[in-house]
């Protein structure tokens, strides 16, 4: 019998396929993604990460098992190191924007609402695609790229394609699966919806970067 994650991963496979096929990912893999688009993405991602770490900390606080709390608080503080590395990179890059794009705002607001106003199970399901999709995209690129020695985005690719990251994703999946064992049918339904919505928001995040999304007014 398959577990909750296996089922929802299968049910949302079409979203992952569309992310893999997206021009952002295809061009990132080929190394041809325009630099301005990549920097737009990194800039928005820095804004996303600064909020996402607070969301993970909130999920950690809500956990009953102290190992689960430790996992999410570690993941949250781990993001601070990533953020600092991103900012180092930015110091000699063009202008840094402090304003979240529409999609970035939508995604972080959604996750924050899920973590603060919904059950722990729903919160876990909402934050999980951030882990699983990046791992699947990292692995997909590593398995299909032919330019590992001269791709300008290789550092980014290696961050999410490696084994260390895979272990962290495995723990996030196990913790979430564990919380589905005693969950009601309604709660599972809500978890499915949250996972699916966050997966769609992951697609939208790449797409909004590719189009350098701007506020309409
Ligand atoms: C929009 C967006 N979604 C997911 C990630 C990947 N990610 C960010 S924090 C974290 C967990 C701790 O490593 C993971 C997997 C990203 N960078 N940007």
UniProtKB/TrEMBL annotation:
The keyword Hydrolase applies. It catalyses: 4-amino-5-aminomethyl-2-methylpyrimidine + H2O = 4-amino-5-hydroxymethyl-2-methylpyrimidine + NH4(+); thiamine + H2O = 5-(2-hydroxyethyl)-4-methylthiazole + 4-amino-5-hydroxymethyl-2-methylpyrimidine + H(+). Signal peptide: none annotated. Residues 15-211 form the Thiaminase-2/PQQC domain. Keywords: Hydrolase, Thiamine biosynthesis. Its EC number is 3.5.99.2. The keyword Hydrolase applies. Pathway: Cofactor biosynthesis; thiamine diphosphate biosynthesis. It holds the Pfam family TENA_THI-4. It is an enzyme of class 3 (hydrolase). Belongs to the TenA family. Catalyzes an amino-pyrimidine hydrolysis reaction at the C5' of the pyrimidine moiety of thiamine compounds, a reaction that is part of a thiamine salvage pathway. This is Aminopyrimidine aminohydrolase. It comes from Olleya marilimosa. The lineage of its organism: Bacteria, Pseudomonadati, Bacteroidota, Flavobacteriia, Flavobacteriales.
